[in-house]
TrEMBL record:
Database matches in Pfam families: TOR1A_C
Domain Torsin-1A C-terminal: 104-158
Protein name: Prosalusin isoform X2
Entry keyword Mitochondrion: no
TM region(s), chain numbering: none
Lineage: superkingdom: Eukaryota
Kinase is among the record's keywords: no
Keywords: ATP-binding, Glycoprotein, Nucleotide-binding, Signal
Signal sequence residues: none
Location of the protein in the cell: Endoplasmic reticulum lumen
């Protein structure tokens, strides 16, 4: 959504609105998934503040992140939902934030990928992949910059 020209998303508004039937087709059971990176910095800040106050990542609720993400979308004039009737009319049912992954999450990804490849986990490979992963912030490297996206290619490099 952050790459979509503002206003273009309005073509979907009839399908998300209260009428449900558009051109004779019932869209009541249709599911639309909109993916965006907007709000990522704000999500990371909320998660970092939670960590600093010794709250577990799993304790962060949607009620805490929803308004932060919505505001980030509404404040971004380059976002596809900027000044959108879809947002103004509250036609989105749920925002699903993706929280940054910590080192132990990336470790699980490495172990799962090794198992998927039919390989036994080797501590030196797991550690090498973790060491090659970028974590942020610089002063407290807690969260993976790329999640687990690079795990498969890095495993192949360290085998």
């Amino acid at each position: 959504m952050d790459k979509l020209a503002p206003g273009l998303i309005e073509v979907l508004r009839p399908f998300l609105g209260s009428s449900w039937v558009v051109y004779g087709t019932n869209y009541r059971k249709a599911i639309f998934i909109f993916i965006s990176n907007t709000g990522g910095e704000q999500i990371n800040q909320v998660v970092l503040e939670a960590w600093r106050s010794r709250r577990e990542r799993e304790e962060i609720g949607l009620q805490e992140l929803g308004p932060v993400i919505s505001q980030a979308v509404l404040d971004n004039p380059h976002h596809g939902f900027w000044r959108s009737g879809i947002m103004e009319e509250h036609l989105l049912d749920v925002l699903v934030p993706f929280l940054p992954l910590q080192r132990h999450h990336v470790r699980h990804c490495v172990l799962n990928e090794l198992a998927h490849l039919g390989l036994e986990p080797r501590d030196e490979v797991v550690q090498a992949v973790l060491d090659s992963t970028t974590f942020f912030p610089e002063d407290e490297p807690l969260f993976s910059s790329n999640g687990c996206k690079m795990v498969a290619s890095r495993i192949a490099f360290f085998l």
